[in-house]
Amino acid sequence: MKLQRKNRRALALGALAVSGALALTACGSDDTGGNGNGGDSSAAAPAGNIDCGDAKGQLQASGSSAQKNAIDAWVKQYSAACKDVQVNYNPTGSGAGITAFLQGQTAFAGSDSALEAEEIEQSKKICKDGQGVDLPMVGGPIAVGYNVPGVDTLVLDAATLAKIFDSKITNWNDEAIAKLNPDAKLPDLKIQAFHRSDESGTTDNFTTYLKEAAPKDWSYEPGKAWEAKGGQSAQGSSGVAQQVKQTSGAISYFELSYASDGLKTVDIKTEAAEPVKATIENATAAIGAAKVVGTGKDLALELDYTPSAAGAYPIVLVTYEIVCDKGNKAETLPATKSFLNYMASEDGQAQLADAGYAPMPEEIITKVRETISSLA
């Protein structure tokens, strides 16, 4: 298995991506948008077994836009049960979310990428007698969406994707694409490849996949910022998805929830006998094979970007919630623990599949719950 951003980090400590609501937007996937304050919660029936405890006041968080839809869903239910707490989640993107957390501006951050070693060191200034830890909370596939008239099914592999996003394959009827799709009527149409303009955990995970699965064809180091030459850019997962929807010949990457509006997604050819579709079930199969590699209370995961098992989708994203293990502000600690506990609860995780996300495997989420209960 390959360590997330192994080529970029000495330590892969998962970053906390707080954004519970219906659809993983993109941690690191980081769209910009309004604060996820849950809106009008009066229409939401209180979720069962939500323990509000002593939680009260405002809870500020920001980061991954990938998980924004999930956060929105969680906030709606939580706010209906815990009326003394106002949760404000700003989907500024993973990079911006981590920065805000390290500056002490938020109680936790959401990120689709793990904290870097230097970020862990910085967190010790904010987390008195402790440090930032990574709690995997939301998972899902990073879909590759495309808009090619007349092509309803498209198969691509890592090498071909790498060449497309590095501007080395520039037309949809290219021989390499035709070889993977012998029955498709590929048009003589220019490829319009879109990438994220903002620093994004989705970009980090997508480029890690390209680097691990097609090292000969992707020479760039994985990271939140896009490094390859050429292509076009747009802000956030919603931005690139919108470009694919309205641009003939377009292709881009985003959380599966952004493909719910009729966008077609690529089937990925792996070492398995059949190409793998971007589905929640197939992402769960891949995440289930992940290993916890963080130390202490950190629960950063090691993902396998080159799976050979049937039905294991290779481009997956895990969004982490980043929080202090010790040294949390006394005025926000009760609300932080209460809200995170709900997100990690059986009820909270049960909402994810309907929202287009993959719940965390039981052995992982059990450890998350244990860590949340020990926050101080």
TrEMBL record:
<dbReference type="InterPro" id="IPR050962">
    <property type="entry name" value="Phosphate-bind_PstS"/>
</dbReference>
<keyword id="KW-0732">Signal</keyword>
<feature type="binding site">
    <location>
        <begin position="64"/>
        <end position="66"/>
    </location>
    <ligand>
        <name>phosphate</name>
    </ligand>
</feature>
<dbReference type="GO" id="GO:0043190">
    <property type="term" value="C:ATP-binding cassette (ABC) transporter complex"/>
</dbReference>
<protein>
    <recommendedName>
        <fullName>Phosphate-binding protein</fullName>
    </recommendedName>
</protein>
<dbReference type="GO" id="GO:0035435">
    <property type="term" value="P:phosphate ion transmembrane transport"/>
</dbReference>
<feature type="binding site">
    <location>
        <position position="112"/>
    </location>
    <ligand>
        <name>phosphate</name>
    </ligand>
</feature>
<keyword id="KW-0592">Phosphate transport</keyword>
<feature type="signal peptide">
    <location>
        <begin position="1"/>
        <end position="23"/>
    </location>
</feature>
<dbReference type="InterPro" id="IPR024370">
    <property type="entry name" value="PBP_domain"/>
</dbReference>
<feature type="binding site">
    <location>
        <position position="94"/>
    </location>
    <ligand>
        <name>phosphate</name>
    </ligand>
</feature>
<keyword id="KW-0813">Transport</keyword>
<feature type="domain" description="PBP">
    <location>
        <begin position="55"/>
        <end position="346"/>
    </location>
</feature>
<dbReference type="GO" id="GO:0042301">
    <property type="term" value="F:phosphate ion binding"/>
</dbReference>
<dbReference type="Pfam" id="PF12849">
    <property type="entry name" value="PBP_like_2"/>
</dbReference>
<comment type="similarity">
    <text>Belongs to the PstS family.</text>
</comment>
<feature type="binding site">
    <location>
        <begin position="200"/>
        <end position="202"/>
    </location>
    <ligand>
        <name>phosphate</name>
    </ligand>
</feature>
<dbReference type="InterPro" id="IPR005673">
    <property type="entry name" value="ABC_phos-bd_PstS"/>
</dbReference>
